[in-house]
Specification:
heterotrimer, A alpha/beta (about 525), B mainly alpha (about 325), C mainly alpha (about 290), B: about 325 residues, mainly alpha, 18 helices, about 0% strand, flat, C: about 290 residues, MetI-like fold, about 65% helix
Chain lengths: ~525, ~325, ~290
């Protein structure tokens, strides 16, 4: 029995000692290991790029950059072919930390709170970040921009959309500003003898016909025109907004020549669109339980070849087409720019999927900042742009006789290159040969690029309103709920207008006042 | 080593006089055993509690706790004066109450039923089957419920239609929201909840049942006099602990089930804080709401514990 | 327990068996759906509807998941933290629960109130992160096992179980020369195996499901447990309220999402049957005489 006493004491001691020992040995900074390994790997004499683009002088040491980005699929190793190629071309060593989306915002907040940020950190345009920017945590890079040819060659709207208090603090991950288009079943339209809709009435007719006139000719009433879902009316990229804008409504907010602001839902065209959906719903031409349905559920119906009208990002047309072919080899999707009585009008959206900021606590000197900006600028050079968007020549893609790129191994590209494409800096249609793809995908790409000519911006995008920061979430939800209830027929038009009044009194009016004041200050 | 009986016969005053030191020395191994745990709680639970000041500040991560501005009870005042406060409180409390009344007894019932099964293989199979839902994430559960209850082709509604000629909008109607939530909760957690009770039941001496049977007690009396008393203290403890989280509702589940049409009955504190957090920096505000819920929980726990001791039960402390 | 074989008893038994079966099926069927979808050919699944048995069997989803060695490595990590973590949990929890089960211990009430308080009030993510960092645990697997070493809930319920052990047993052990450690190790724990098995299960499931702490505390993705990677696959497919619209090509087909769910939950489901033997009745049989 005595031995048990010693045994127990030893157990407790071992545990305590073991814990302490494990703590100290395990906490070696992994990032230090990575960077020292890489600087040994890296040749300080960088190979010049073949086309004579400017690279760093051969005897300069590679610059080490730490980055944090959002995880995309599988995390590539730090010595992947792509990363090594980028490092060589830009004369840098990179330490990329990939953060999973399932806890991204919390992780970023923790990193900010604990001052464990990298030199370049990808963030999104949320009040938390805006607040951090306003407090001076990050470098203002606006004044330096014109030193960089590629960066300054991009459409200024990209930068406008991420400005805070009128100043630029980051580099956006470019996305199309005018992304939305109409994706529809061309074979159904042909069978119904109808044209691409361009007015509210035409949309109604086409959607109605797709439901009741058996466009797939199987003798059954199992097809839909439009399909709604619970987020159809939510967010800055709401499908309802996109559709309404094309028909004449403003993009979230309208500002007139006197600087007066009006929200989109007070515009008659927006109400007409809602009424159209309401009518379709009452007639059973819209999925009745849409308020409980996630968009991914709805997509399945398109994939099953049972729905015909969709307002979405143009480039989705390609993947929708390839998916529907699996269940219905004769299905034909087509894509067209969103057109209304006033021509093509596309809601200008964020234009980015986040942007990089540069913490002053990690980027200590202006010189370092310029080196980082140089890195990003170089990513837009033709070699790097092509590397990110196509992969490696003759491994992922090849060049065709007529000067285009064609996929050799798309799946491999998705695996090895896509994370870099999605998270670094690159631009389709800029310093890169076009991609040869399915006709619909090429058409969609062209539409997305052309759309920049027709975008209708949201004038309130970069204006700050304290009331919106405080109550914006609930106010947005109030209006989205009202729209959905109106479409479902739970409230009538008077009830809907009452909700708008409620929105105004709960804070909407104050938001309008604050936007108008900010707008006047900007002196536009 | 003296036994407990001696202690009970000695009056308190005399015991106290014998000294704190004496007891500490006598129980030295016990205190040694407590040491790692106490250190753990101090380091990882009590030291971080300084973060509770967040509820009284306008906390921003980059300012830290020292420099974030102090705002006193501003968040609490805002919270209580929200026009939706009463609705949120009503929804949260009602769901908690329904859960207590309809869900809480069921694992006990199921444990009793399983306990009556004599075939070990059957018992273990059913047990494993009823656990499975605990591991299925809410996203999948709600997705499945959608497939079953939608008015457009959902199995349940098709069956209803065949039976009665009309359908029910389970997913959207406000009056079905709370029943659906509780029903899902029951389905998902009842099996897992039996584990603790089964563990308690495993400690019951089978000879007691034999003796009772010989004395002529039928099955029901055996349950009443032997089985239930064996798990009584477990039930009481679990009930008290449950009250501590009284205002905590399952965020994910409710969030997924909310629609514009049932928001009036479905919006609870947790979903409300989430929506607020989408635009606003959520830390301070959600800390304040969390503190409110915790205080309510504390009051309930202290009250329940006192009540339990009055009935002669082992409370939590 | 064995009942008299009367008719009414038998009827009650049959009803009981029947109800249990019904509930068991209702509980397990949706998971059958999940499994079925994961083994079905993606094209069939795209057609929609509820599938209970694969119409067209296919391992495509699992092939996809296993095609990377990342998954196997993270699986190793998960197994490690589940096993080691649970051992740490059980040791710390039982060490602390045993003294607290002694009603004569001075300061007991205070300590229990202290534990209860931590179950209701918490400092939050950022302060806890600072503490974990200060102790030097960040970016190690220990950050997933030490900060969660004791669950207040488990501690209190275990204490309760310990309290139900007859004092006579402990006293006779002490008379034989055991000190408190010995009593705990040789008498109390063996007699509390159902409880120990229960909490082992609870803790193990908790460790197996770890993903959030891993992302917050560990930057090295080689140390991530399996749930972190699996969540990404499933999360990619949910719509998010917000401004960024995801690239739709990223949505994994339903089959892969379901395979992920199966893969993530099946192992821990298999653990329970091994623990079941500890739930056998009559552990105290014959240990107390009179």
């Amino acid at each position: 029995m005595r031995s048990s006493k010693w045994l127990s004491l030893i157990c407790v001691l071992i545990l305590t000692v073991g814990t302490i020992a494990a703590c100290s040995s395990g906490s070696s900074n992994n990032q230090n290991d990575q960077s020292s390994k890489q600087s040994q790997q890296q040749n300080s004499t960088s190979n010049q790029a073949g086309n004579g683009q400017q690279a760093a002088p051969a005897d300069e040491k590679p610059f080490h950059i730490t980055l944090a980005v959002s995880q995309v699929d599988e995390i590539p190793p730090q010595d992947s072919e792509i990363q090594l190629a980028i490092q060589e071309y830009t004369n840098t060593t990179l330490d990329i930390q990939w953060i999973p989306g399932s806890a991204y915002a919390d992780k970023i907040n923790v990193m900010i709170a604990a001052d464990e940020m990298p030199m370049a950190m990808r963030v999104t345009y949320t009040p938390a970040i805006i607040s951090s920017i306003q407090s001076g945590l990050f470098w203002e890079i606006g004044p330096y921009l014109d030193q960089f040819p590629n960066l300054s060659a991009q459409n200024p709207q990209y930068y406008e959309n991420i400005k805070v208090d009128g100043k630029l603090y980051g580099i956006p991950q470019y996305r199309d500003i005018g992304r939305a288009a109409l994706i529809f079943r061309k074979d159904w339209l042909e069978k119904l003898g109808m044209n691409v809709p361009k007015t509210v009435d035409e949309y109604y007719n086409v959607a109605r016909a797709m439901v009741s006139d058996d466009p797939d000719g199987d003798g059954q009433n199992n097809t839909y025109g439009f399909l709604l879902h619970k987020n159809f009316f939510s967010g800055s990229a709401a499908a309802s907004t996109r559709l309404a804008v094309s028909l004449g409504a403003p993009n979230k907010w309208a500002v007139d020549e006197n600087g007066k602001f009006t929200p989109e839902f007070e515009h008659p065209v927006h109400l007409e669109v809602l009424k159209m959906f309401r009518k379709l719903y009452q007639e059973g031409a819209i999925n009745q339980d849409f308020a409980a349905v996630d968009e991914s559920e709805v997509l399945k119906i398109f994939d099953a070849s049972r729905a015909g009208l969709r307002v979405a990002v143009a480039q989705n047309a390609g993947s929708m087409q390839s998916r529907v072919l699996q269940t219905d080899p004769n299905a034909v999707f087509d894509v067209e720019p969103l057109t209304g009585p006033m021509g093509i009008r596309v809601s200008g959206e964020l234009g980015n999927n986040g942007f990089f900021v540069f913490p002053k606590s990690k980027v200590k000197t202006e010189e370092d900042l310029l080196k980082i900006l140089t890195f990003f600028d170089k990513l837009l050079d033709e070699d790097m742009n092509t590397l990110q968007r196509r992969g490696i020549l003759n491994k992922h893609y090849e060049e065709t006789a007529d000067g285009k790129h064609k996929w050799l191994d798309f799946d491999l590209f998705q695996r090895e290159v896509k994370p870099y494409r999605d998270m670094l800096l690159n631009m389709e249609g800029y310093k890169i040969l076009p991609l040869q793809d399915t006709p619909i995908a090429e058409k969609a790409q062209k539409i997305a690029e052309d759309n920049t000519k027709y975008t209708v911006p949201n004038p309130a995008l970069t204006l700050t309103s304290p009331t919106y920061s405080e109550r914006g979430g609930e106010l947005d939800q109030l209006m989205t709920d009202a729209m959905i209830k109106f479409v479902m027929g739970n409230i009538d038009e008077a009830g809907y207008q009452a909700e708008i009044q409620k929105w105004r009194s709960m804070g909407g009016d104050k938001i309008i006042q604050e936007y108008e004041a900010e707008y006047a200050k900007m002196g536009k | 080593m003296k036994t407990d009986t001696l202690r009970q016969e000695t009056p308190l005053a005399v015991r106290r006089k014998r000294g704190l030191m004496r007891d500490l020395i006598r129980d030295k191994y016990l205190y040694l055993m407590l040491l790692p745990g106490i250190i753990y709680f101090i380091v990882f639970k009590y030291i971080p509690m300084f973060g509770l000041v967040m509820a009284f500040q306008d906390y921003k991560p980059f300012l830290g706790f020292i420099e974030s501005p102090w705002v006193g009870f501003k968040h609490f005042e805002r919270f209580f004066s929200e026009p939706q406060f009463f609705m949120l409180f009503r929804n949260t409390a009602l769901l908690a109450l329904y859960s207590l009344i309809f869900y809480f007894p069921l694992p006990i019932l199921l444990a009793l039923m399983l306990n009556e099964v004599r075939n070990e293989f059957y018992k273990r199979t059913i047990q494993t089957m009823v656990y499975v839902p605990h591991f299925v994430s809410w996203v999948v559960v709600v997705g499945i419920f959608y497939l079953l209850f939608t008015t457009e082709g959902g199995l349940v509604n098709e069956f209803l239609y065949w039976l009665t000629g009309s359908k029910i909008s389970f997913l959207l109607a406000p009056e079905w929201f709370r029943p659906m939530i509780i029903f899902q909760q029951i389905w998902k957690e009842v099996g897992w909840g039996t584990i603790i009770f089964l563990a308690a039941l495993a400690g019951v001496d089978p000879q007691l049942y034999e003796a009772a049977r010989i004395d002529g007690a039928n099955r029901w009396r055996q349950i009443w006099h032997i089985t239930l008393p064996a798990i009584r203290s477990t039930i009481v403890i679990l009930l008290i602990l449950r009250l501590g989280n009284f205002l905590d509702t399952g965020f994910e589940q409710i969030f997924l089930m909310l629609t514009p049409t049932n928001r009036e009955v479905g919006d609870v504190f947790d979903t409300y804080v989430y929506v607020k957090g989408l635009t606003q920096l959520q830390y301070s505000y959600s800390a304040a709401v969390g503190m409110f819920k915790s205080v309510v929980g504390l009051i309930l726990v202290v009250g329940a514990n006192w009540l339990a001791k009055k009935f002669g039960e082992e409370g939590i402390y | 327990m064995v009942q008299d074989k009367t008719l009414s008893n038998r009827i009650v038994d049959y009803i009981n068996y029947f109800l249990l079966l019904v509930f068991g099926l209702a509980a397990v069927l949706p998971f059958v759906y999940v499994i079925a979808v994961s083994f079905t050919d993606p094209v069939e699944v795209a057609k929609g509807g509820i599938i209970l048995f694969p119409k067209k069997f296919s391992l495509a989803a699992y092939e996809y998941i296993f095609s990377t060695n990342v998954l196997l490595r993270s699986l190793g990590v998960s197994i490690y933290i589940t096993v080691v973590g649970t051992i740490i949990n059980l040791v710390f929890t039982s060490l602390m629960a045993y003294p607290l089960a002694k009603t004569y211990l001075r300061g007991r009430q205070l300590i229990l109130m202290g534990v209860l308080f931590t179950m209701l009030f918490s400092g939050g993510l950022i302060p806890t992160y600072f503490v974990v960092k200060a102790v030097g645990l960040t970016n190690t697997l220990w950050s997933l096992m030490i900060p969660s070493a004791i669950s207040g809930f488990n501690l209190i319920v275990l204490k309760n179980f310990f309290q139900s052990i007859p004092e006579g047993l402990e006293d006779s052990a002490k008379i034989d020369g055991c000190n408190d450690f010995g009593v705990l190790l040789r008498i109390v724990i063996p007699l509390s195996m159902p409880a120990m098995a229960t909490f082992a299960l609870f803790y193990a499931v908790g460790h197996w499901n770890t993903f959030f702490s891993a992302i917050i505390y560990i930057n090295d993705n080689k140390l991530w447990p399996v749930q972190v990677l699996l969540r990404e696959v499933v999360i990619m497919a949910q719509s998010r309220i917000g401004d960024t619209e995801m690239d739709e090509a990223m949505i994994q087909p339903l089959t892969i999402r379901m395979a992920v769910i199966v893969f993530a939950t099946l192992p821990i489901l298999l653990v329970y049957p091994f623990l079941q033997k500890h739930f056998a009745k009559g552990v105290l049989l014959g240990s107390v005489k009179g």
